[in-house]
Design a protein that fits this description.
Strand order of the largest sheet of chain B: 3-2-1-4-5-6-11
Helix content of chain B: 40-55%
Largest sheet of chain B: 7 strands, parallel
Mean pLDDT of chain A: 84
Shape of chain A: globular
Low-confidence stretches of chain A: none
Number of helices of chain A: 2
Order of helices and strands of chain B: EHEEHEHEHEEHEEEHEEHEHHHH
Largest interface: A-B, 24 and 23 residues
Number of strands of chain A: 8
Structural class of chain A: alpha+beta
Largest sheet of chain A: 8 strands, antiparallel
Low-confidence stretches of chain B: none
Number of strands of chain B: 13
Strand content of chain A: 35-45%
Distance between the termini of chain B: 35 Å
Distance between the termini of chain A: 38 Å
Structural class of chain B: alpha/beta
Number of helices of chain B: 11
Order of helices and strands of chain A: EHEEEEEEEH
Strand content of chain B: 15-25%
Helix content of chain A: 25-40%
Oligomer: heterodimer
Amino acid sequence: MLASGGFESTQRVLASGPVVESSESGARWLGIAYWQAVNRVTRGGVRARWTNDGGRLTLLGGASLLSFGTPELAFSCEVVSCRYAIQRGLLALRAGGSVTIAQRRADEEVELSVIVEEYLPRLAARRGAPKWTGTLYAKCQSPLHSAVSRHYFELLASRAGG
Amino acid sequence: MKVTVFGATGVVGSALLPLLVSDHELVVVSRSTQATEQAVRWVEGDASSADDVARAVEGADVVYYLVHSLGRRDFERQDQVAAENVAAACEHARVKQIVYLGGLGDDDATASPHLRSRRETGERLSAGAVPVTTLRAAMIVGRGSAAFETIVALVDRLPAMITPSWVSTPTQPIALADVSRYLAGVCANQAAFGESFDAGGPEVMTYRQMMERIALLRGRRPWILEVPVLTPRLSSLWLHLVTPVGASVARPLIEGLKSPTIAREERLRTLVPFELTSFNDAARSAFAHDEAALRA
């Protein structure tokens, strides 16, 4: 937890080579693949829906868990990334923070990462509140996020060079 | 250069022929007899017949494989047999290149039977010694394209739609004219030998956004409600009722719409450079084609 009250988490793996090229399409594909991983890990329970304003993660196609702005795509020789700003939703205490899905050169290898920054989860314990009030976040949401990231990395590995 | 085209009477084949005819000697394979024109020799044949295929590819330098059996009950098996025939005959005839049009999203582990079949067809064609150039496209925006016709019919005929959640899946449709230019551009292009390219259009959108754009172009304002419970079977039966697309074609198409069909790379834009057609312009062009046909 950051001093601001926001949460930050980073999952990363090293790959032997790039999984996407450095282009707008490559950056967009990183984002799309991540939402596919969310769908798969939750067996369709949490679904990504794309709208004119960005996207939403919905519970069984209904309640909006998190909504995102339009993807911010970036690419250079060093980094290819897709960043979604978190706007609102049942799992966000207020608008703010982001999810960035990236591929970054790291010496001879390539680092694939999922980085959540300045996110204010509704289910987490508030600063100064008893720890048990954050049980749902610690035992459900956070492990699910880690599982999605793991599956996402596997998905990228399975399609590398495809 | 001698070029043989399988599937030339289909939507893409028909658009491709005029682009090839000025530079190449064409042999065009179709299931029914057609009048032979100057520079285009029509050969009656079926890709599922090894003898027909061998006759058609004899002496060819480049072979276009634009065949699919969508709509048949056993389309996956039919497609495999046809692809194996073509791969074997091309190898025997020492063809220099096979050009194949596959589907974006076909590398998804949970791909629908339709998308899986597109991938397996590509694999069967590549199993031989002849280098294959694969172009992978999402929905083709043009008259006769089953997916495009389905969406236009839905917009034209229904003032209100209850749609399944696949309408929120992102896709990257490409104009019929553009995919044809790409196909023609890789012909005998050695840089494309043995390569697979994503042929994405210039815009990414959901099927819902596509419906809304077509509705605007058609002067309509349908009311769309997404529900998470419609199955592909129910949806295909509904499409069978209200659109010109039969359930046997609609179902595999709908199952395929669950997977995002987005380009992952843009190498084709460098290899065959030209300005891509916007979705609205491609749709307008398809509708203009209709109006011209009506006037005629």
